[in-house]
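Retro notes, item 3 of 5
We never archived the inputs for the magnesium ion complex last cycle. Fixing that now. Sequence and ligand:
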Amino acid sequence: MSPSALLVVERLSKHFGAFQALDGLSLKLASGEILGLVGPNGSGKTTAINVISGVYTADAGTIHFDGQPVGGLPIHRRAHLGINRTFQVPKPFKGLTVSENLEIAAVYSGAGRDEIGKCLEFLELAPLAGREAASLNSAQQKRLDLARALIARPRLLLVDELAAGLNPAELQRMAQTLMTIASSGVALLVVEHLLSFLRELTSRVVVMDAGREIFEGPLDVAARDPQVIDIFLGG
Ligand SMILES: Nc1ncnc2c1ncn2[C@@H]1O[C@H](COP(=O)(O)OP(=O)(O)OP(=O)(O)O)[C@@H](O)[C@H]1O
Ligand SMILES: [Mg+2]
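Structure as it came back at the time:
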């Protein structure tokens, strides 16, 4: 195992009934690094995030975080160690305000008022602090979801399709935000369909198909790889 890797995932498998959603996925990620995770619909990207964050337990394979096996730990233990994630479809407490949503999440880290205030500023949510989460548009809900994950002070942040539905200006700012988070030392796994957005963030990607890695390396090389082209264009 590489001593510099914060996250080491080896040969993860997960099935749902007869369907093999993960089929031997391996990847490594260092602190401060951004790794893109791409693949067609249904290739297992969200399942990978669910298994690494503890929503599901893998059928086989290992997950080491900071040298420690975490694959058997429940979600809240992994969150305490520093693993957090966003959701492909954000799930805020809709009847609570933006601030209140962060106050609840802050229970995990002990973050106080100052830190919540800074987090709201950082995610451009300060003007919306008193608004009910249900009244936010989708871009604002994505920023709230990211704020909720950040207030738990993650060392590993798993990001599931934050770019979907953002306009070009919002995309630019979201890319900046993610790069600022990584530059503070957080390891980022970024699941994304929008390759132009991913290209702003990182050159290193893992491409998945049918629950396994079919490519690992620079995004530009992936874009010329015959197997990658084949799965995205459907043969
Ligand atoms: N809880 C579950 N029960 C049954 N099947 C599931 C479950 N979660 C995921 N799957 C199936 O596993 C496969 C992989 O799903 P997953 O959500 O990981 O794909 P994805 O790569 O994130 O796709 P997308 O790009 O559409 O978000 C899909 O066929 C999905 O229907
Ligand atoms: Mg998904």
